[in-house]
Design goal:
Blueprint lengths: L5 H6 L3 E12 L2 E9 L8 E2 L2 E3 L6 H13 L7 E6 L10 E9 L13 E8 L10 H18 L13 H12 L5 H11 L2 E8 L7 E6 L16
């Protein structure tokens, strides 16, 4: 196939943007970080934190900057997911967005709307519509990716406190996966994955006997040694 002439390539007018899809668990429900747009298009509508990539920036730096500028959230792990580039996805022109996903502990951050956002808030997943642009489609696909990620990586460490019980860990998995899992099977699989370190500490859970506390061996994001799908 002949190469495209330089003169034709120079006529292309495309912009590159980034969007951050950030999840958390609040009151036992999976929630998503959204901003209320200050400017057109879709002024007043909810959308993911994001914006255009500057010439001197990497995609990761742009995503981190936009997330902080619009919500006040910073210094979190953002995993690059994929790109979306339908011709008519943005009424401003041909804009390709690269999407990042994250799972964080909402209690560690104070939300503050800045720059292009009128508001920044955590919204329960079942109430996160309608959204601007093609963000509803993106949300569905990123959620599927998160449910896969929590089974083949240690990304759950980004959400949990330093010390936790196995019951608390199981609850996080169930909330993210959107399904109940068998307690015995869960603990057997988690032990096989070898991602936890048992502590010489316990915590009371209701009227039951004290539950042992654990911590992640490594809180930095990494794939598991074996790509095991834990439940689904």
């Amino acid at each position: 196939m002949p190469m495209q002439p330089i003169r034709d390539m120079e006529r292309q007018k495309m912009l590159v943007a980034v969007d951050a899809v950030v999840f958390t668990v609040i009151k036992g429900k999976l929630s998503i970080l959204l901003i209320q747009r200050k400017n057109e298009p879709f002024k007043g509508k909810y959308a993911f934190p994001g914006g255009f990539v500057r010439n001197e920036e990497s995609l990761e730096d742009a995503a981190a900057r936009e997330l902080y500028e619009e919500t006040g959230v910073k210094d979190i792990f953002l995993k690059r997911f994929t790109a979306y580039g339908d011709v008519d996805r943005d009424p401003r022109g041909r804009i390709i967005t690269v999407v990042f996903l994250a799972l964080i502990d909402a209690e560690k951050f104070h939300l503050e709307a800045k720059t292009d956002a009128m508001a920044a808030e955590w919204v329960p997943l079942n109430k996160a519509t309608p959204l601007a642009f093609d963000h509803e489609e993106i949300l569905r696909e990123v959620l599927e990716e998160l449910r896969y990620e929590i089974q083949i990586t240690n990304i759950a460490a980004q959400l949990l406190p330093e010390k936790f019980t196995l019951s608390e860990l199981q609850q996080v998995y169930e909330i993210v996966l959107g399904m109940k899992v068998d307690k015995r099977n869960f603990r057997k699989r988690i032990k096989a994955l070898d991602i936890l370190h048992p502590l010489r500490e316990t915590r009371m859970e209701g009227a039951h006997r004290p539950a042992q506390l654990y911590t992640f061996k490594d809180k930095h994001y990494k794939p598991l040694k074996e790509r095991i799908q834990v439940f689904v």
